Amino acid sequence: MNYALISENIKKQFKKSKRIVHALKGINLQIREGEIYGLLGPNGSGKSTFIRIASTLLIPDTGSIKIFGYDVVKEATKVQRLINRVSAEASFFKKLSAMENLLFAAGIHGISKKEALEKIYDISEKVGLDRKRLNDPLEDFSRGMQQKVAIARAFMTEPRLMLLDEPTTGLDPRAKREVQSLILQMRENMGATILLTTHDMEEAERLCDYVAIIHRGRIIIKGRTSELKTMIAHKVTNPTFEDVFMEFTGISFDEAEYEEAESA
Ligand SMILES: Nc1ncnc2c1ncn2[C@@H]1O[C@H](COP(=O)(O)OP(=O)(O)OP(=O)(O)O)[C@@H](O)[C@H]1O
């Protein structure tokens, strides 16, 4: 079995005014190559912190993440060549055109102008963007279209691992559907592995092969969406994936007891 990402005992704390926030309390997970892996959890549970560590933007306090065998701290440059990341707010030069933004991204990744133009026309087709609009400033595009361009732009660099941090947050249902279809289509075409965070449980079920639910910096449960539904079937009739989320994130546990169980 080839793994795209292996995380071992990742811990991270932050100082927030005078308080210490334990954002991640020992995250262990393995993502198989080619999989869409969902990291789900309530607000503040630590999802973005994990994604930021995996994408070399943040250094963990302890533990390690290996991406295709490379350590995200010690071999950050090698890791950066293998990954790309898209967050909820597409980061563009909004006054510049789609074409200028895409050419800029291609340039950073050492893609020649000729190849970049081919890829850009391909992207416009994939996201349903009329070629004539390529020269319009990105700020004139709908949020859904901006997000689709951001995802296609990230795939343009052919990452082996794509980190999608809430890629559909704030989009209307139609735009959301379109972005989800684009993610599936990109995975199909590029064969990339995807780590995705979302608050939308229907989306998690639609896109993810495997999910982990994180709560207060700890992974509470991992499994295929169907397996997790089966786990709560004795409590809820015909459970939805949202029921699964409610069940596992409603847990109130005694910290000391949990720590003991974890270290046992
Ligand atoms: N740079 C930072 N400084 C201080 N605290 C931080 C920082 N980044 C994250 N935190 C805290 O760490 C915890 C986890 O935050 P994180 O953003 O990883 O959660 P999340 O699961 O992604 O939340 P959301 O679903 O709301 O995006 C939160 O309590 C947050 O306030």
Automatic annotation (TrEMBL):
UniProt GO molecular function: ATP binding; ATP hydrolysis activity
The keyword ATP-binding appears for this protein: yes
Any Pfam family: ABC_tran
Keywords assigned by UniProt, alphabetized: ATP-binding, Nucleotide-binding, Transport
Source taxonomy: Bacteria, Thermotogati, Thermotogota, Thermotogae, Kosmotogales
ABC transporter domain ranges (all copies): 5-241
Organism from which the protein derives: Kosmotoga pacifica
Name this polypeptide is given: ABC transporter
Stored InterPro entries: AAA+_ATPase, ABC_transporter-like_ATP-bd, ABC_transporter_ATP-binding, P-loop_NTPase
Family membership: Belongs to the ABC transporter superfamily.
